[in-house]
Specification:
The chain has about 55 residues and is mainly beta. It has one domain: Ribosomal protein S27 (N-terminal domain of TfIIb), CATH 2.20.25.100. The protein is built from no helices and six strands. The strands form two sheets. A three-stranded antiparallel sheet has the order 2-1-6, with no helix packed on it. Strands 3-4-5 form a three-stranded antiparallel sheet, with no helix packed on it. It starts with a strand and ends with a strand. Bound molecules: zinc ion. The site of zinc ion has 7 residues, from loops.
Length: about 55
């Protein structure tokens, strides 16, 4: 299962991240951590919200 998620950062930036990312995903605008890898699905950071599953 390899879905992309549209995530909104606390700064308002929206970006697409890979749901099974193997590395930490950071916001392209403010560099806040959006998601961290857990071995399967990523774990979203507190400030990040999923807008939709792509
Ligand atoms: Zn941000």
């Amino acid at each position: 299962m390899s879905k992309f998620l549209r995530v909104k950062c606390a700064c308002g930036n929206e970006q697409n991240i890979f749901g099974n990312a193997a590395t930490v995903v950071k916001c392209l605008v403010c560099s806040a951590t959006l998601a961290t890898p857990t071995g399967s699905r990523v774990k979203l950071a507190d400030g990040a919200k999923v807008i939709k599953v792509l």
